[in-house]
Every structure is written in structure tokens, then in C-alpha cells.
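Comment thread on ticket #2218

A.B. wrote:
> Attaching the input chain for the structure job we discussed in standup.
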Amino acid sequence: MPEGPSILILKEEVQQFAGKKIITASGNSAIDFERLEDKKILEFKTWGKHFLICFKDFTVKIHLLMFGTYRINERKELKPKLSMLFSSGELNFYTCSVKILEGDINDYYNWSEDVMSELWDPKKAKANLDKTPNEMICDAVLDQNIFSGVGNIIKNEVLYRCRIHPESLVAKIPSEKLDELISECSIYSFEFLYWKKKNELKKHWLAHTKKVCHRCDLPLIKKSTGKKKRRSFFCTNCQKLHI
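C.D. wrote:
> Ran it. Output below, let me know if you need it in another format.
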């Protein structure tokens, strides 16, 4: 599943279509394609893992889910969920969720929850974590209403950086460690963006998919953790379990 930084890259890559009028729209998603035709795209926005195509009175929300992809000025053999043709160029989305949000997009999203937004509010994240004291931190970090844009890679890397065991309970983690984790969720997301643009993201992973702890030279544990049952990679020696 693409994480927040990857959706920001998508936003940058499609700027050629900002301010352009859609000539035709088609696909196999359950939206009214005619409504998009002859409409001008005002701007593109992102909120975490959501890619937003903004028009005057509505917005098309795209979520790439686990295996979604897109093509700019080219096509796949697979039928797209949404295809938009312009006077010069086209934009195609595959294996994704496509929905229309009516009215003002600001009524749907709180931008302060997005770890890569200029409006990101770490104090609000801390307050929201305090409301989930009995959650495992591996679940809390993936909560998009607290850390919008954070996915499983960022979760594993941040917990490793902060030396926190993924099965730690939120209420048992010292306040200063939570502050560190909150800060790292944003910091690492921007590092992820930088490395991904350079096509070198994987070589910077210290925990995700790794087998040995580079600090302790001990085997890393691979385990499906929390209610979400997402893969965690962690060291039981240097990542403290707070329970």
C-alpha cells in the first residue's frame, strides 16, 4: 500500500494537468464519469494516503489500496478504474478506490492530522494518543486519524529508531518517548520522500524486512502484531516493551 510520501510524489508528477480541462473520462468505477467531462481541475491535494482531484463543487478521491497503480501519458492493458483524457496527455488509475466528495474538500479532512502537511500538529497527535491508552503502539501509529500518511514501513522504521517494542501499550510508554515517536513519524516521512525520489529507499531500511539488528547483531523478530495484524520487524533486545 503506497504511504503518504508516495502520494506526494504522485501529486508532483501530475502537475501538468492542474488547470486543464478533462475532454473525456471513463473507467469501471461506480462514479458519474460525464460529470468530470468538460470540467477544469482546479488543483491536486493529498491527505495521507488519499489523492484528491479538486474541481469547483466536488472532489474525486482516489485511494490506491494495497495494489493500486497509475500511469501518466501511457496505459496498461488492464482496464482503468478512472481514465481522464486531456487535450494533451492522459491520466489513468488502476486497481484503486474512486469516490466523489461533494462540496468543499475542507469539510472532509483535518489537514493537521497529516504528518507531511504544513498544518501537521504534533500536540494534537499526542492528545489523540492519550485517548487510546490501551492500544498497542503498532496499531496507534497506523491510525490515519492520528498519523495520516504513515504506513507499515514508516511504522517499523520509526519504532526501531525510537527503540520502542511494537506491542507496547500507549499508556505505558514514557511521555518523552511518545514525543520522540510523534516527531519521528513526520521526520522519517520526509526522509522516505527524499530517498524514494532518489530510488534508494530500501537501502536505508534498518528494520523493515531485515533479519538482523544492526545495533545488537541479534536476529530481528518478524511477527504480525496488534489488532491490524500487520507485519512488524523488531529487536527484543534494544526495543523496550512497555506494558
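A.B. wrote:
> Thanks. Noting for the ticket: The chain has a mean pLDDT of 97.
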